[in-house]
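Morning run. Coffee first, then this:
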Amino acid sequence: MARAYIGLGGNIGDARQILTDAVVCLAQFPEISINARSCFYISAPVEALGGDYINNVISVDTDLDPIVLLRLCQSVEQRFGRERPYENAPRTLDIDILMYDNITHNTPELILPHPRITERMFVLLPLLEIDSEIELPNHGKLKDKLPDLSWQKIEKLPNKYCPNSMGSNLSH
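And here it is:
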C-alpha cells in the first residue's frame, strides 16, 4: 500500500462544492482510501488566468501504481467537465498527484514528486496542514520552503471544521 498526496483545485463554477464532490468521487474507488483532507484555501492564480482558485490536498493510501492513479484522477477531472484548451487555462477541476511514497518518476505523462510543489503556496499550506513534517526527496522539510513564497497571498476559508485562525491574506 502506497501513501500519496493529491492536490485539487479549481476556479470555474462552485469550486468548493466541486472539490468536495471530487473527493467523494475518489473515495468511491475501492483501491483508494482517503486518510486526511485539508481545509480549503483561496489564492490568486499563479502563472495562470482567470479568477481566484480554491485548493485543498488529500492524503490517500492506494494499491494503484502512480500511472494508474493519474489516469483515475484524470477520469474524475473529465466527469467534472475539465477542459484543456491551453496550458494553465481556468478549470472546473484540476487534480495533481503531488507525491507518491518517496518515489521519483519522470516521464512525459507524470513527474513525481510534482515539479512545482516548492513553488506554490496553495500546495504547500494544505499539504503541511495534513503533515507538518513532510519532506520532499532532495529538498528537505517542506515547511522550510514557506518563507520563499511569502509574496503569494493565500487565505484559509473558514467552515465549521476549519476555522480561519490564521487571518486573511496570509503571507507566511
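The CA atoms of residues 8 and 95 lie 5 Å apart. Good start to the day.
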